[in-house]
Amino acid sequence: MPVAFNYRFQQNSNVKYTDQGVVNIQRSLAYNAYTIVKPTDEHVPTGPRPGLPPERHLTPYMQSLIANIRSLLLQRPIVTRQLLYNRLGWDKRTKLRQAAIYCGFFFESGPWREALVRWGVDPRKDPEYRKYQTVSFLSYIKSGTSKHRAVFDQHVLKLAKMSPEELETEHTFDGFNVSQTGNLFQFCDITDPLIAKILATKEIRTTCAPTFQGWYHVGTWAKATVILKDKMNTIIGGDKPDDSIYERIITWPELWDDKEMAAQYKSEIDDRQIHHEKRREHQVMHNVRWAARNPRYAFEKMEALDEQERQADEEEVPDDDIPEDMTEDPVRPDAILDADIGEAEEEDEDRDDEADEDDEMQVDNRDEEVSGSSELDEDSDSPVVSVRAASEGPVPFGGYYRV
Questions:
Q1: Plot region of 117 (φ>0 → left; ψ -120 to 50 → alpha; else → beta)
Q2: Exposed / middle / buried, residue 51 (Cβ in 10 Å: 0-12, 13-18, 19+)
Q3: Domain extent listing, the chain
Q4: Do strands 21-24 and 78-80 pair parallel, antiparallel, or not at all (unpaired)?
Q5: How far is residue 189's CA from residue 139's CA, in Å, rounded to a whole number?
Q6: Cα 243–110–156 angle (5° rounding)?
Q7: Share of the chain above pLDDT 90, in %
């Protein structure tokens, strides 16, 4: 006589039966529903994409997360993922990415890239939104600890156990400490006095540049972002930033003629002794000029001189024109969906190839690894799963930068 066996079956809470058939809510939320607009689109969306599961069909837990995100967006209409995780908890990362679908949209590229924007808010129309512009870097100087595999899991577990009070300032840069939670910042979260003074300028553009520097002139953008990265590299390298090497740079106008800027310190470069004494300052000046002329080149090539270069004979860095490149790599969900954590090494190789193509700048660049924790994907909130798992979420909250 057959005996029934209790398999303790439980229906998947993410599977719903509708008139259209069986719907996997989790998959549709994680993969298909982000609203991503081009920075040149005329209008911004005012609500989520049609076809999403109604909020009333979501779990009470998910509804509470949506309410929390909306409450935060009422206080601050544009937020980064680090801010969300720091305020609402790193143990909720996966669910927060899914809840964000109901709360706002993302720009594919441009000055507000990788930030969640509240429905109906168009930062390209009002210069007051310039303080929410984002800046991020692909790499830092090596920090000594690679956040791969188990090391990264432990790092996220550590963040998940930290209280909101402990994480309150982790998405900011004060000029002395580097964030543990990522390498994406909004200008309003940069509290370093020197950089904040640069960004506080009233001399801004009359119209927004949606694909590049937003409401700031290119000179303002270059000064702030180059000094920000240089200070970060200095701190990660174990030294204390010296504001004196930036004093002349902050006096530069918001718009300038590159040849005039180069002429200001050309005589110092021609003098071998003076150039040796002011090598660091001259290097930052070069980087600011490069950033203003070609932003993509600058952020891929700006690196501190290595020991070999310091020992080599000083040579004048040529002032050959760099062709302007205003393009950006757009954020596309499908570009990250097929990515695996193991592909991080391929990114390093790509940067090496790009460095070889720009030998004319006569600056020896070296590979860097991301310092701090870069956002990676996981399949559940808690416990943290291995980062070897395939990426789940799309780019906006899926962790565009990987170690």
A1: beta
A2: exposed
A3: 18-398
A4: unpaired
A5: 20
A6: 70
A7: 39
Cα angle at 185 between 95 and 302, to 5 degrees? 130
Are the CB atoms for 387 and 336 separated by under 8 Å?
Answer: no
Task: Check the CA dihedral 210-212-216-218 and report its sign.
Answer: negative
Give yes or no for a contact between 217 and 254, defined as CB atoms under 8 angstroms apart: yes
**pLDDT exceeds cutoff 70 at 314:** no
Greater model confidence, 236 or 116: 116
In whole angstroms, what is the distance from residue 53 CA to residue 220 CA? 44
Closest residue by Cα to residue 230 from 305, 317, 324, 325: 305
pLDDT tens column, 23-42: 665 554 544 578 999 999 99
CA distance linking residue 337 with residue 367, whole number of Å: 25
Show the tokens assigned to 347: 């990114």
DSSP 133-154: -EEE-S-BS--S----HHHHHH
Q: Are strands 104-107 and 36-37 parallel, antiparallel or unpaired?
A: parallel
Distance CA 272, CA 270 (A): 6
* Cα–Cα distance measured from residue 352 to residue 346, given in angstroms and rounded to the nearest whole number: 10
Phi-psi region for residue 240, left (φ > 0), alpha (ψ -120 to 50) or beta? beta
Host H or E run for residue 105: strand 104-107
CA 152 – CA 304 distance, rounded (Å): 26
The partner residues of 105 in beta bridges, in order of sequence, read: 117
* Distance of alpha carbon 63 from the chain centroid: 28
- Spatial CA neighbour of 215 closest among 299, 111, 105: 111
pTM summary value: 0.69
How many Cβ atoms from other residues are within 10 Å of residue 102's Cβ? 23
Helix (H) or strand (E) holding 282: helix 279-293
